[in-house]
Amino acid sequence: MSSSEPRLFAPEGNADDNACESLSEPLARVMTMLGKRWTGVVLSTLMQGPMHFSELKRGIPGISDRILHERLVELATLDLVERNVMAGPPVRVIYKLTKHGAAMRPALNELTRWAEGHLRPE
């Protein structure tokens, strides 16, 4: 591994080490974030461009208003999504990826490519 490549796993420890501790801290954080139901789908949907809440809701069949709102708040707190209020009437809110959120595009594309080649359809 070159020095510029991130370390995905910590060096091997002894057998008493917790399995989760062998995962690098940044990878553990991103997997925890993406592991939350709907988070990856919300990010992927916003890769299409800025959207109003109702557009996001239509683009993600099965997500409830409450969960969509929670995920958007969480992603905004992580500086991955920004919320812009447009003066009205009526007042409208547009959600869009920040530069940090948009920087996830290559990773999400790779995950998609991997899933197409390795996961069986449900």
Task: Describe the structure in your own words.
The protein has 122 residues and is mostly helical. Helices cover 47% and strands 11% of the residues. It contains 6 helices and 3 strands; from the N terminus they run ααβααββαα. It has helices at residues 25-35, 39-46, 53-59, 65-77, 99-102, 105-118; strands spanning 51-52, 81-86, 92-97. Strands 1-3-2 form a 3-stranded antiparallel beta sheet. The radius of gyration is 18 Å and the shape is globular. The model has no long low-confidence stretch (mean pLDDT 87).
Main β-sheet description:
3 strands, antiparallel
Shape descriptor reads: globular
Question: Count the strands?
Answer: 3
Radius of gyration over all CA atoms, rounded? 18 Å
Biggest sheet, spatial arrangement of strands: 1-3-2
Structural classification:
mainly alpha
Structure annotation, total helices: 6
> DSSP strand (E) fraction?
5-15%
Q: Ends: how far apart? A: 35 Å
Question: Helix content range of the residues, please?
Answer: 40-55%
Low-confidence stretches: none
In N-to-C order, the SSE pattern is HHEHHEEHH
Round the mean pLDDT to the nearest integer and report it: 87
From the structure above, extract its key features.
122 residues; mainly alpha; three-stranded antiparallel sheet; 47% helix
Task: Please provide a brief summary of the model.
This protein is mainly alpha-helical and 122 residues long. The protein has helices spanning 25-35, 39-46, 53-59, 65-77, 99-102, 105-118; strands at residues 51-52, 81-86, 92-97.
